[in-house]
Here is the input.
Amino acid sequence: MHIPDNYLSPATCAVMAIAVVPAWIVSVRKVSKDFPKEKVPLLGIGAAFSFLIMMLNVPLPGGTTGHAVGGTLLAVLLGPYAACISISVALLIQALVFGDGGILSFGANCFNMAFVIPFVGYSLYKLVKDRAGSKTGEYVGLAIASYIAINAAALFAAMEFGVQPLVAKDAAGMPLYCPYPLALSIPAMMIPHLLVAGLVEAAFTVAIVAFVAKASPGTIYADSSLKIKPLYALVGALIVASPLGLLAAGTAWGEWGAEEIKDVVNGGAPLGFVPAGMEKGFGFEAPLPDYALGGASKVIGYLISAIIGAALLIVAFKLVGRLFRGSAAKAKA
Here is the structure.
């Protein structure tokens, strides 16, 4: 679901960035005002959860791969506004450090994964939770909410891909960016997410929320107590498990490189050409592209990338937490 650069036209990237900016502004204001200052480091742990979950690729129908996001998970643990910030920062680290997701398409990826998933998932979860008569009913609602939310995000991504042949063509009528129309992009994205990726998202969400509710209930949104060590243990477990994502062979749909897209078969035949905007588009070389580390094995590269990514996110939000606490202390003085 990470849209690379040069799949969306610059105009589409600009529109999607403009669309997500209000969500960022409102989320930052809400977290600054309402989120307990002592819990701000939890945003880093939540971001690490999402980052590591997204590394765990699974095989999807059609020979592609996909992953969970953890958007509803973070919305339930931290609240949807904090989840929006956490996932946005995780996506930024993925793009800048690991080349996973584009720089120009960063706004689109954040709209799909950091805005749509947390807010759709949390709204549906609250709707069911307020009516559920048991804990089991609440968890069923959580599973349904997370399943629907990631599929909603996949639908947005599919539409963003699919409108490109309509909005960006050359003089000969050839697509400049993503060459696949809505009639192809929507089923290509939705069928694997409906059949597999949505179920994986639901499983991760329910399992981790159940673990946190038992081991560290203070991290549940608006609760008062706080147990953080079990969360670090869970981050460690996800890091150790991250190389399992290498078992899923193939490339996620819509994430092929310019050098391979002409040979990709969609609709029964290879594309046969490289769209001009993709071939001559924006280029960015990440320090650790594709979670690889120099001459190290793929497993070692993946492990070290997982450690680096999780550490960057946790440390970044710890520093932000200290700034918040320092500002609060000065205000009291």
